[in-house]
């Protein structure tokens, strides 16, 4: 495909980029599948997948923030639950 | 726009549908803005927005399931935290 | 629920906010259902739902930008397709 | 963490799963960053990122379906645009 870049004619093969993107997207999909498999393994051992996902999500917060979130969520649920 | 439906020529105005969809999308956007406003109000009164969203999300679960999720998330965080 | 706000004790009912949020979320859900119904109606008249959604999404762009997107997408697909 | 699985007491380390999940999530994030980099490279060469993403998305469809989508989207935009 001919691309005019800053007035100059270039023959740049778009597939140079799309092949790389497609390969990386495939790798990303494979890793997502592996993550799903590990969750299934944990679940088969008796761990609760939803709670595990929530715990891993909250792990990204500082401990104080995590504890505050858990405490307030529990407190709010007691009032509105 | 002419549409051939089951062999018959129809003059169906696409805008008959798109106008309705656009109007509904606008209404939906307005309601999202109102929801955001209520969260801001609650936040201004000292409520924690993230915990409030989490509590409302969990409210859709049965009480037992909610309590289990909170308990296990706390327990898992203690181990991996 | 008692909230200490700027040192003062307040009795603020959390449900004052959560009831409003839940009501608005319900309204939002109803509108989403109505949008889905209009798409189904259009589909039953022979319109292509996916193309209709893409057209409405692109309608938010300026005409020049829309035409450019369509032209380049077609051009790129010819090269990588 | 002690887990009672089918009546038997197991000492299963939750971190056995969470460490693996976190490592995989990191790998996934790295690949997402690489994909973003390739898009930037393509953009620097004059390719349109949004059209490129749309083309790669449509590439997953059969050619006939792709051509139909492009044709109908163009047609619908002409009517409602």
Please give a structural write-up:
The structure is a homotetramer of 81-residue chains. In chain A, strand 1 and strand 2 (8-11) form a beta hairpin. Chain A has helices at residues 15-44, 49-58, 63-80, and strands spanning 2-5, 8-11. Chain A contains three helices and two strands, in the order E-E-H-H-H. Chain A starts with a strand and ends with a helix. The first copy, chain A, has a two-stranded antiparallel sheet with strand order 1-2. The longest helix of chain A has 30 residues, at 15-44. With 81 residues, chain A is mainly α. Helices cover 72% and strands 10% of the residues of chain A. Chains in contact: A-B, A-C, A-D, B-C, B-D, C-D. At the A-D interface, strand 1, helix 1 and helix 2 of A face strand 1, helix 1 and helix 2 of D. Chains A, B, C, D: It holds the Pfam family GapR_DNA-bd. Chains A, B, C, D: InterPro entries: GapR-like_DNA-bd (IPR046367). Chains A, B, C, D: Keywords: Coiled coil. Chains A, B, C, D: Residues 7-41 form a coiled coil.
């Amino acid at each position: 495909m001919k691309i005019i870049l800053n007035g100059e004619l270039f023959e740049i093969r778009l597939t140079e980029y799309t092949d790389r993107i497609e390969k990386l997207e495939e790798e990303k999909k494979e890793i997502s599948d592996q993550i799903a498999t590990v969750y299934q393994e944990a679940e088969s051992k008796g761990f609760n997948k939803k709670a595990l996902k929530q715990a891993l999500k909250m792990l990204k917060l500082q401990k104080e923030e995590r504890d505050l979130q858990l405490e307030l969520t529990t407190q709010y649920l007691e009032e509105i639950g």
